[in-house]
Each structure stands twice: as C-alpha cells, then as structure tokens.
Write a structure and sequence with these properties.
alpha+beta, 4-stranded antiparallel β-sheet, 24% strand, disordered N terminus
Length: 288
C-alpha cells in the first residue's frame, strides 16, 4: 500500500549504503541535510522570486559532484533529491531525447537528460525543453525506483555502469539522515484582496475558494490555509482527478494523489502535502 506522507511532518529516511529511499522514518534530530543536500540551481523551479541562477564558474567553484557515466536521466523528486536512471550509450541523441520526452509525459516531474559533462536537456513537467551546459550536481540520489518507458538489454557495459551508479549513490548518501518535502506546501503570501475574499469557511467546513469536483467529490482550487502555522498563506489544492503522475512503464498512478501537491482532508479540515518521494513506493502490477 503506498505511503500517504502528509503535511510538514513529511519526511523520508536516507539509508547509507542503500539505493532505496525509506519513507516514513522518525525524525530524531531535525537534520535537514543542509551541507550535503545542496542542489544544482538549474533543476529548481524558476517561478520562485527568492531563487537565483548560478553561473557556470560559480557552480564549478562550489565543487558539487556529478555522476559522470553518460547518458542518463535525472528526475527531481523533491528539492535536493534526484532519481538517476542509466540510458544506453549506443542510442542516438534523438532516440534518447524521445525517451526523455516520454518519461516526462508520464511522470510529470522535472527531468534532465544528461548527455555529457557539459551537455544536457532540461524538461519541465509540462514538457518544455531547453538545452544547457550546466548538468545537475549535488543533492541526494536514488535509483531503480522510477521505471523507464522502455526496457533495455542489460549488456556488460550497462552492468558495469550500474555498479558505478550504485557506488555513486552510496557515496552521496553516506551521511544518512532525513529529507523533507516542501515545508511551505507551495504556499504564497495572500494579497489584501485574497485575505478578505478567502477568509473563513464554507458550509460543510471547506475553506473559501475551494470548489467540490463533480467527478470525484473532492475539493480543488486556491484557499487560505486553515492551519495557524501557515496563517495568511494561499495554498493550491488538487482533487483526485488532477493526479497526473504516472509510471512510464505500466501507466499506473505513482501515488493515490498528485505528487508535490496539496489536498483538502474533510475529516480534519486541514490541507495536506504529498511529497514527491511518496511516488517511489509505486510497484507495477504483475504481468500475467
């Protein structure tokens, strides 16, 4: 059963010496992997006015490591956590690009096709593409948890590269610790108009600004968060019908709810966040 990781307590345990991310660990120290969890600026969303882009020279000066057995796909699961997937070196660039596009179309997660040490293609969840000479670096990594849209023959070369990837993952995650989803739940400050228009609740307990989906019966829209911790913050809420994150191999949903997104829980009147690593627990059904 997929893990339903909720709200600001959402976290995942990084296990040193393992390629798998273990969801739902108990937070002991509040460690958020600040020193070891830096993330390449190009994989960050560009809509946040508080983020900035680093130059190539600045990135090199940071000395953040990158996996150097090309080509491969990097998928941004949550900030500072990437999923790496090897691609065959024998494939032509256009075929690799087609595979990356299909992967993004299914997963709906930020992805990068890394072709070489200074050549890559970044993809937004909506499929937008741009070329860059700044490949993803740093962060914590996992592999083998998001399947490709196609199956590859694991020849000797790919098996050797798989061992290199496993060693890289072990080194990157050696410190252990915990990672969180978006602790802000993607919220933003409400405008004065929104403070007035969205204040209070509707009949039935849902915050103003949310509408009940006629198909699934859940709530969708934008509202003020009823949690005092997020007072004055506008949150985007999604219903079940808006879940678009699918497995590229079987086409099934990666999680019961949309990843890196919020939903309104009527039973407790709260807005909950589902971090991207919740989708790593997906398992394709057995083929009969």
């Amino acid at each position: 059963m997929p893990l339903d990781v909720r709200n600001v307590s959402s976290e995942a345990k990084i296990s040193a010496g393992s390629s798998r991310l273990m969801s739902g660990g108990v937070l002991l120290s509040g460690l958020l992997m600040h020193a070891n969890g830096q993330e390449h600026a190009s994989m960050k969303p560009k809509h946040d006015e508080h983020q900035f882009q680093l130059t190539t020279q600045q990135l090199k000066a940071l000395g953040l490591p990158a996996f150097e057995s090309f080509p491969y796909l990097t998928t941004r699961v949550v900030p500072a956590l990437y999923h790496l997937a090897l691609l065959p070196r024998s494939f032509e660039p256009e075929l690799l690009r087609h595979i990356a596009q299909r992967q993004v179309a299914a997963n709906k997660l930020q992805t990068c096709l890394v072709l070489g040490p200074d050549d890559c293609l970044y993809y937004g969840p909506d499929g937008t593409e741009f070329r860059s000479d700044e490949i993803p670096r740093g962060g914590h990594v996992t592999f083998g948890q998001l399947r490709h849209c196609v199956e590859f023959e694991h020849d000797d070369e790919l098996q050797v590269r798989q061992k290199l990837l496993a060693a890289y993952v072990e080194e990157r995650n050696r410190a252990g610790g915990y990672l969180h989803g978006d602790l802000t739940k993607g919220g933003r400050d409400a405008t004065p108009d929104e403070q007035l228009r969205l204040a209070g609740g509707q009949t039935g307990g849902a915050p103003r600004g949310l509408n009940q989906c006629p198909t699934c019966g859940e709530w969708t829209g934008q509202s003020l968060d009823p949690n005092p911790v997020f007072k004055g913050k506008v949150m985007r809420v999604h219903c079940l019908c808006e879940n678009v994150n699918r497995c590229a191999a079987c086409g099934g949903l990666l999680h019961a709810r949309m990843l890196n997104a919020n939903y309104f829980e009527k039973s407790d009147g709260q807005i909950w966040h589902v971090p991207g690593f919740s989708g790593l627990s997906h398992r394709c059904p057995e083929v009969c």
